[in-house]
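Batch manifest line 234
LIGAND: heme C
JOB: complex structure
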Amino acid sequence: MANIFPPNTNKRFYGGAVLIALAAALVLGGLYYVNFQVPEYEPVQPVRFSHKLHAGDLNMSCTACHSAATRSPRAGIPDTKSCLGCHQHILPNSPLIAPLRQAADPQYPGYTGEPVRWVMVNRLSGHAYFNHMAHLNRGIGCTSCHGDVAGMERIRAPRDARMQWCLDCHRNPAPHLRPLEETDASHYSAADYLRTHSVQDTDGNRLRTPVQLGNFLKHQWNIQPKMDCSTCHH
Ligand code: HEC
Ligand code: HEC
Ligand code: HEC
Ligand code: HEC
Ligand code: HEC
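JOB STATUS: finished
ARTIFACT:
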């Protein structure tokens, strides 16, 4: 980490001051959290896109649209052109599809080329760092963090996406771990997975319970999420 103190300052003093400031911020942050719980955030979007229909009923995987999630820090919002891959055939003349064609179909009479302005829902404040790839490639699934998106007509951010939530899982990740091919699944249940797949531990015994599976994956992949402040605060 870069040295933020000029060479001649009294580092002990500044170090103490920084610690006290951090402790105060944590206490205030805690009070804020207890007293003013943030409601779930569910803004109206410019197009009535339904995750319940696409990820739920049509059972599309999450990365079919958010393909950046496994190879970059961000999950990304799909380009409107990718929607038209289906919607130039499926309900192309529906008024609900019109904004997509205005944005991305030059043949459409009302074409403007203006991108659809989706309202962002999940946003950490600037001082915390998050990385999708670091989770998806280590066995944490989309729905472990974003909830039952495949059941949502309109996307909703969880009310507890705060530091304590990150730390709780970093301290004890085993119950949340899944086989890698399941991390982008719209629906996942460890119990169902164990019923339909034979997973064996290193001694050849078949794993029977979700607890066994979580502990096995943690051990097998040597999962050790970091807890030090600089992991998420640069
Ligand atoms: C470990 C928890 C976690 C997992 C797993 C996770 N997300 Fe996220 N997601 C977050 C957080 C936290 C943010 C806010 C990030 C920020 O503001 O920097 C976010 C933001 C997003 C966003 C909006 C901003 C962006 O990154 O482009 C989308 C879309 C998204 N996630 C989709 C997904 C999908 C799809 C998956 C699975 C392929 C997934 N997420 C897996 C926690 C998670
Ligand atoms: C794999 C094909 C596929 C893709 C890709 C797809 N959709 Fe759909 N979409 C459908 C189907 C199927 C329906 C339901 C059609 C029906 O009700 O008969 C639908 C319905 C809709 C509707 C409701 C239309 C109406 O009149 O009821 C909207 C809005 C919509 N999609 C938006 C989008 C957006 C935005 C994207 C891109 C992010 C997208 N779709 C990508 C297949 C797709
Ligand atoms: C057919 C394409 C499509 C599929 C499949 C899809 N998404 Fe999305 N997703 C979108 C679009 C378009 C948006 C932006 C509009 C909105 O918020 O509804 C979005 C927004 C999101 C957001 C909110 C982004 C923000 O602003 O914070 C999250 C979280 C998310 N998706 C997670 C998922 C998860 C988890 C799955 C799998 C269960 C999934 N998506 C499947 C197209 C898709
Ligand atoms: C696993 C990731 C992670 C680790 C490790 C972590 N933080 Fe955080 N921290 C966050 C997130 C996420 C937020 C909330 C950002 C937001 O509100 O959008 C946050 C917020 C904060 C805040 C603002 C008050 C609050 O609670 O919202 C302070 C102060 C803070 N962290 C200090 C620390 C200190 C000191 C450490 C080391 C003991 C630490 N953090 C370790 C992720 C982390
Ligand atoms: C459901 C469990 C879970 C949640 C929630 C979660 N993480 Fe993680 N996180 C993990 C796991 C597992 C890893 C991978 C550890 C490994 O590779 O050994 C990880 C890794 C990371 C890494 C990469 C550095 C490292 O430790 O290897 C960062 C940065 C990170 N998480 C930040 C966050 C932040 C910020 C939040 C909250 C907004 C968060 N995480 C929430 C489970 C979680």
